[in-house]
Design a protein that fits this description.
The chain is α/β, with parallel strands linked by helices. Helix content is 23%, strand content 21%. The protein has 3 domains: 71 residues, Alpha-Beta Plaits; 248 residues, 3-Layer(aba) Sandwich (Rossmann fold); 108 residues, Histidine kinase-like ATPase, C-terminal domain (Heat Shock Protein 90, 2-Layer Sandwich). The protein contains 12 helices and 19 strands. The protein has a 7-stranded parallel β-sheet with strand order 7-8-6-10-11-12-13, sandwiched between helices.
């Protein structure tokens, strides 16, 4: 059994921080097939004595139901050698990993949107929602799927932003769009295999997540989501009273992609390691141009080499973005996982007030709360740029060569953000030299107006092999840590030189061509340990 979330003291619900033993479902396994041999592989599985039936989950991935008395390890051993079978895996269980006139924004209760130093916080240590809303608040064009334990779609602050299935006629008892779900108006429930994604029992995690993404803004009640106007698709993957299984996670992703979601929020996770089936599902979303925002987890751990997934998929897939949590002082939250190769962004996750069941509001803690801040921001951005698509090699041109103009813009912004979150007045210049045939050099030079000690503090750690949790937590250049991972992921080098007379020169040397992303299982399961991370 997966661990249930614990309720800690006071009013704040903390998600479970313990490391559960990975458990899986009895009576079934997940099967994937070799490209071009799907039908032969499916036939061999169906004809196996240990299998009583199969069901398509999505993306060419199947669930195989086992005969009574057949153990999962025995089935894996027998089916793995079948013709056309690429992998056989257990069905592992995971768990819940201008201001509008909404009063919770106005009074500062939603500090992540409007931090003016209330309750011991640091003014400005928020997501700068007001500045973003001056540009766009969301149009409702982008559909965001909440892969969680359901959404209370009757909540007064959510109902106006719920997605409605355009292929269904409400209440007629007919599967109008032929997708296998009758009257799936707001989404679907894969934990109970029905069409009503309303939360089970007392579940309210997904409702809280949904409110952070897209509680209706400027309606004069409650709070606001990052996207004041959006469309929230409820995809319930949780089994009542427990966690979720990988099979239901895959079904949920397939449903979201098939019904037009462009963003998937996954405030979920487990400690089961890299699963090929889970990878294939998120890679299927990638092929459809879908961005998946997932939680880093709440175990105060560096997850760069850990078994936390789907968070770890950020090391393999550039459409998966893993989010750590920060507090109201812009520090890494005490419970948050981290890792410069995995968790490339952080967002507010401590004492975040949002919607819960029955029209109420409550503060929760967790990277589960940080993740929807990013999902909401992506949704607003995509609404404002509806013709944009997910560009997987955004620093290169159409031939796969680094684009000097893009490099200059990206690194200028990273450096400006790293130096006390402000733009230095002519203190740093970025020079991109793409003239050579086999490499691109990026030089970041200090002109002298920024204290030498400050630049050394920011730049020099990048020349080393590791990083410390404290450096990341204190915000000493998240952009520069990302820079380091960009360089490393593409086989580049970093050099830092500094002196009092000439300032600091921070040099990046990159191969001429953008590195191609690989499949983590190109050489079979024996090579699943840790391929070179891709950084988007």
């Amino acid at each position: 059994m997966a661990h249930r979330p614990r309720v800690h003291m006071d009013l704040t619900q903390l998600e479970d921080r313990t490391t559960p033993t990975a458990s899986y479902a009895d009576g079934r396994v997940i099967v994937g097939f070799t490209a071009g041999q799907e039908q032969a592989g499916l036939t061999s599985v169906r004809n196996a004595s240990v299998v009583t039936g199969t069901e398509l989950l999505g993306f060419g991935i199947y669930e195989a139901k086992l005969a009574p008395g057949v153990s999962v390890p025995a089935a894996i051993q027998m089916l793995s050698g079948a013709a056309g079978v690429r992998y056989v895996e257990p069905d592992y269980m995971g768990d819940r990993a201008s201001l509008p006139n909404d009063p919770l924004v106005q009074d500062g209760t939603q500090w992540a949107l409007n931090n003016f130093g209330q309750n011991g916080g640091t003014a400005g240590a928020d997501i700068h929602a007001s500045a973003g809303w001056d540009q766009a608040v969301g149009t409702g064009q982008t559909v965001v799927a909440v892969l969680d334990d359901g959404i209370d779609y009757t909540h007064p602050d959510l109902i106006g932003n719920m997605w409605h299935n355009p292929g269904e006629i409400p209440g007629d008892g007919i599967d109008n769009d032929g997708n296998g779900h009758i009257d799936d108006i707001y989404g679907a429930d894969f934990g109970e295999n029905d069409s009503d994604p309303f939360p089970h029992l007392t579940d309210t995690h997904g409702t809280h997540v949904a409110g952070i993404i897209g509680a209706v803004g400027n309606n004069g009640i409650g709070g606001s989501g990052v996207a004041q106007k959006t469309r929230l698709m409820a995809v319930n993957i949780f089994t009542p009273g427990t966690g979720y299984f990988t099979t239901d996670e895959i079904r949920g992703i397939a449903y979201a992609v098939a019904h037009g979601a462009k963003v998937i929020n996954g405030s979920i996770g487990g400690f089961y390691g890299l699963l090929q089936a889970e990878y294939d599902a998120y890679n299927g979303a990638r092929a459809a141009g879908v961005i998946c925002i997932v939680a880093a987890g709440n175990d105060t751990s560096n997850i760069d080499n850990g078994p936390q997934f789907p968070a770890g998929l950020a090391r393999y897939l550039d459409n998966v973005v893993t989010i750590a949590a920060t507090d109201r002082n812009d520090q890494l939250s005490t419970f948050s996982n981290y890792g410069v190769g995995t968790a490339s962004l952080a967002a507010p996750g401590s004492f975040v007030v949002s919607t819960i069941r029955n029209g109420q509001y409550q503060p929760f803690n967790g990277t589960s709360m940080a993740t929807p801040h990013v999902a909401g921001a992506v949704t607003v951005f995509w609404d404002a740029n509806p013709d944009w698509t997910l560009r997987l090699q955004h620093l290169g041109d159409t031939t796969g060569v680094w684009d000097p103009d893009r490099l200059s813009q990206v690194f200028s912004n990273l450096v400006a953000n790293a130096v006390q979150h402000g733009r230095p007045e002519g203190g740093v210049t970025v020079i991109v030299d793409g003239a050579t045939s086999d490499e691109v050099r990026v030089e970041i030079r200090n002109a002298g107006s920024i204290p030498q000690s400050r630049l050394a503090l920011l730049f020099e750690p990048l020349a080393g092999s590791g990083s410390t949790r404290r450096s990341t937590a204190r915000g000493l250049g998240l952009g520069l840590f990302i820079t380091r991972e960009v360089v490393r992921a593409h086989g580049g080098q970093i050099d830092v030189t500094s002196n009092e007379e000439g300032g600091t020169v921070f040099t990046l040397v990159l191969p001429r061509r953008v590195a191609e992303g690989g499949h983590p299982n190109e050489a079979g399961h024996s090579n699943l340990e840790r391929p070179t991370p891709e950084v988007c």
